[in-house]
Every structure is written in C-alpha cells, then in structure tokens.
C-alpha cells in the first residue's frame, strides 16, 4: 500500500532521512515511532507528497509519487486524510464550517449531501450538537476530534496522524486513541506518527522505530520486545521498567 524505498532527504548539509525504507500494509494501523527530531514528521510529509525526497521512491498503491507536482498529487491527495499535530483548523470558523469547507474543497460531493456527511462524521467522533460552536471555544481533545472528523469526511483510503495525543491529558489521549482504532475499522489504512511508546503499543498493528533519519526496525510489539537492536532495546526499556515498578508496587 505504502512503500518508501531508499529514501534520502537533506536540507543543505543536514541529513534528515538517510537511505531509509519502510512498508505499510493495507488496512493496518502502522506506527512511526521515534524520539524528537528523528525524522518522523519528515517521513509523513514525504508520504503525503508535501515534500519530495532527494533520492529514492515513494510508492502509494504501487504508484511512485516521489516526483509528482502538486497538481499531479491532487487526485491522490483526495484519498488521503491528514490530521496535523496542530490540527490546522480555522479557529474563527465553527465546527460545521470547518468540516464542510474541507468536504467542498476535496470536491466530488453534491451540495445537498454536505450537511448529511458533516452530521455523520461529527456523530462518529462523538461531537453531535457542536456544529455551531467556534473552534477557539473548544478544548484540545474536542479540536482533535474535529480534525479527525474532517479527515474522515471524504472517506479516505489512508489517514495520517502526526502526534495525535500530544498536549492531551491521559483520559483525552485514550479516547483519541480509541477513536483512531474505530476510524481504522471503517476500512482506511492508518499511519500514526508518535514519540509516545504507550500509545504505539496500545493501537499499533506494526511499529517502525526510527532514529536519526532511518528506520531501525519494523514489526509487531512482540517482535520489538525481542529485538536485538541496541536503539530499540533502549527505547523499549521504559516498558520493562514500568512492568517491574508495577510488580514491585503490587507485590
Ligand atoms: N524545513 C526544515 N528545514 C531544515 N531542517 C528541518 C526542517 N524540517 C525539519 N528539519 C529538521 O529535520 C530533523 C527531523 O525533523 P522532524 O520534524 O521530521 O522530526 P520529528 O521526528 O517529527 O520530531 P518531533 O518529535 O520533534 O516532531 C530535525 O533535526 C529538524 O530540525
Ligand atoms: Mg514531528
């Protein structure tokens, strides 16, 4: 479904992605996990065609998008929902206006169906009745739900989430993660970028651990826990430490 083959990217002397490869299967929730500055958001921008790599191929459904212009990307972009870290909503517009605007922008929907679709996705993210509220009056968790509703509104094949729980409290984080799982069961492939290990373990079907611009390991949580890679071991140390602490508390 999505494949990065030997992708490299640099800004001047600074190497951002270093000959890295990655493969994501249709329908799964794929996590791109790594520390701050590892290159996670850069990978996401390359996958959605916002950035072009200096070298390598980016395949979406076997089509190489790595050299496509913005215009050529448009039909493909219509099949992609993107939930940006900062949500990228229009703060002075209402919830309904935000979702409807995007629906119209993406095109292909009859005006008479816009209202129905907006209601359907808002109800899916548990935001029914908020249509007329301005974005800047909403809590962080609710804004994230609007961003997800907007991404779902045109029934994308792939949804990309960049750090979907950053800045949210534990209760809101969990409900956003549960929403990502439910959204995935509508049929789309989900790509979730995060630095939060617990989130990755909770929702991920497969995890790709990245460090310094390259994927160091891909697999299930179980495979990660058995990895011999030094960086993966260090990154997952927290899991073992939490388990040990919990056991000490209980025993
Ligand atoms: N437009 C840019 N110009 C130059 N350097 C950039 C640009 N965007 C990102 N970088 C650099 O590329 C590296 C990877 O950045 P990226 O945003 O992909 O990391 P990340 O893993 O998403 O980090 P975070 O967890 O902090 O969001 C960082 O060192 C960053 O400073
Ligand atoms: Mg980032």
CATH homologous superfamily identity of the domain at 1-79 and 158-166 and 189-251: P-loop containing nucleotide triphosphate hydrolases
Count up the helices: 9
Instruction: Sketch the topology as an H/E string, one letter per element.
Output: EEEHEEHEHHHEHEHEEHH
> Roughly how many Å apart are the termini?
46 Å
Structural class: alpha/beta
Give the strand tally.
10
Q: Bin the helical content.
A: 40-55%
Q: Overall 3D geometry?
A: globular
* Small ligands present: adenosine-5'-triphosphate, magnesium ion
Query: Sheet with the most strands?
Result: 6 strands, mixed
Note down, in words, how this protein is organized.
This protein is of the alpha/beta class and 251 residues long. The chain has a domain at 1-79 and 158-166 and 189-251: P-loop containing nucleotide triphosphate hydrolases (Rossmann fold), CATH 3.40.50. The protein has helices spanning 40-47, 70-77, 95-106, 111-124, 140-152, 170-184, 197-203, 221-225, 230-250, and strands spanning 2-11, 14-24, 29-33, 55-60, 63-64, 80-83, 158-162, 189-194, 206-211, 214-219. Strand 4 (55-60) and strand 5 form a beta hairpin. Helix 3 (95-106) packs across helix 4, helix 3 packs parallel to helix 5 and helix 4 packs across helix 5 (140-152). The protein starts with a strand and ends with a helix. The structure holds adenosine-5'-triphosphate and magnesium ion (MG). Adenosine-5'-triphosphate is lined by residues 11, 14, 16, 34, 36-42, 195.
């Amino acid at each position: 479904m999505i494949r990065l083959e030997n992708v490299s990217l640099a800004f001047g002397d600074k190497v951002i992605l270093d000959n890295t490869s990655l493969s994501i299967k249709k329908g799964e929730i794929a996590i791109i996990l790594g520390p701050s500055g590892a290159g996670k958001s850069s990978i996401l921008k390359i996958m959605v065609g916002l950035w072009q790599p200096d070298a390598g191929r980016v395949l979406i459904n076997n089509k190489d998008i790595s050299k496509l212009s913005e215009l050529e990307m448009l039909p493909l972009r219509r099949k992609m929902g993107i939930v940006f870290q900062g949500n990228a909503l229009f703060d002075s517009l209402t919830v309904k206006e935000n979702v409807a605007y995007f629906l119209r922008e993406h095109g292909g929907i009859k005006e008479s169906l816009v209202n129905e679709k907006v209601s359907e996705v808002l109800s899916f993210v548990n935001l029914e009745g908020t249509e007329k509220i301005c974005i800047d009056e909403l809590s962080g968790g609710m804004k994230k739900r609007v961003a997800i509703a907007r991404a779902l509104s045109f029934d994308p094949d792939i949804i990309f989430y960049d750090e979907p729980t950053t800045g949210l409290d534990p209760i809101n984080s969990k409900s956003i993660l549960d929403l990502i799982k439910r959204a995935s069961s509508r049929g789309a492939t989900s790509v979730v970028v995060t630095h939060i290990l617990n989130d990755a373990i909770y929702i991920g079907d497969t995890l790709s651990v990245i460090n310094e611009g390259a994927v160091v390991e891909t697999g299930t949580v179980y495979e990660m826990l058995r990895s011999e890679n030094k960086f993966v071991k260090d990154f997952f140390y927290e899991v073992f430490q939490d388990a040990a602490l919990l056991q000490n508390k209980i025993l």
